Amino acid sequence: MTAQTSAPPRVLSIAGSDSSGGAGIQADIKTITMLGGFAMTAITAITAQNTLGVTGVDVVSPEMVAAQIDACVADIGVDAVKIGMLGSATVAHTVADRLEQLTVPVVFDPVMIASSGSVLADADTIAAFERLMKLAALTTPNVPELAALGGSDAMATRNLAYLAKGGDAPGAVVVDRLLRPGLPPVEWRAPRIITRHNHGTGCTLSSAIATELGRGLDLQEAVERARLFVRAALEAAPGLGAGHGPMGHQAVRF
């Protein structure tokens, strides 16, 4: 076995913990690691959840979230940031305060509802997303999240880059669209992978994009590689759980 000698991209995931390991911080760590990055975390909330749903949430204090970010930045350093579940508007603003001091690419997954249907962001938290979208190199809403953010027209007025994910839309073909100010849209189409083991797809995609941006890829290349990683992980799902099961991060080799 040959050890990796080049420095891995240092990726900080700011997100909630999924006790069942399928999404959130746990999915991010698996994704970043399997893509050759070095994963660090600032945990925003602790959840009790499994493939059937979320049964409990404890939000971490804004001060502790800030302390986690500061600790990583001050010592190891950060090449890219992924933002997921935030838990409260105060935490969202605290994260924005810290990231405004950095100059690394940020990927913002505006998590509002879990795959099981559990609500993970209230109206005040969603309102605080505006600051984070302005900071982000890319925002990655799914269909209901895009609607909650005002739809494509509202996103266009914000003058920012976003990836409109199509996994929640009906149909046999999944369409993802990358939209960037001043550039033509880029569209990817792929056959839908029929499976109930799709817990954590959004977390995995956003952390994969952040890892590739931290490595130095441009935005389109990063999205392309991240999409391939997600599809491979879906195909390799181990079949665990009675509901929306986890993907097979451990089996993907890039």
UniProtKB/TrEMBL annotation:
Query: Annotated region Disordered: where?
Result: 1-22
**UniProt-listed Enzyme Commission number(s):** 2.7.1.49
Keyword annotations: Kinase, Transferase
Q: In which pathway does it act?
A: Cofactor biosynthesis; thiamine diphosphate biosynthesis
Q: Which Gene3D superfamilies match?
A: 3.40.1190.20
Q: Which domain of life is it from?
A: Bacteria
The Pyridoxamine kinase/Phosphomethylpyrimidine kinase domain, residue ranges: 18-247
Annotated Gene Ontology MF terms?
hydroxymethylpyrimidine kinase activity; phosphomethylpyrimidine kinase activity
PANTHER family reported in the protein's UniProt record? HYDROXYMETHYLPYRIMIDINE_PHOSPHOMETHYLPYRIMIDINE KINASE THI20-RELATED, PHOSPHOMETHYLPYRIMIDINE KINASE
Write down what this protein is called: hydroxymethylpyrimidine kinase
Lineage of source species? Bacteria, Pseudomonadati, Pseudomonadota, Alphaproteobacteria, Sphingomonadales
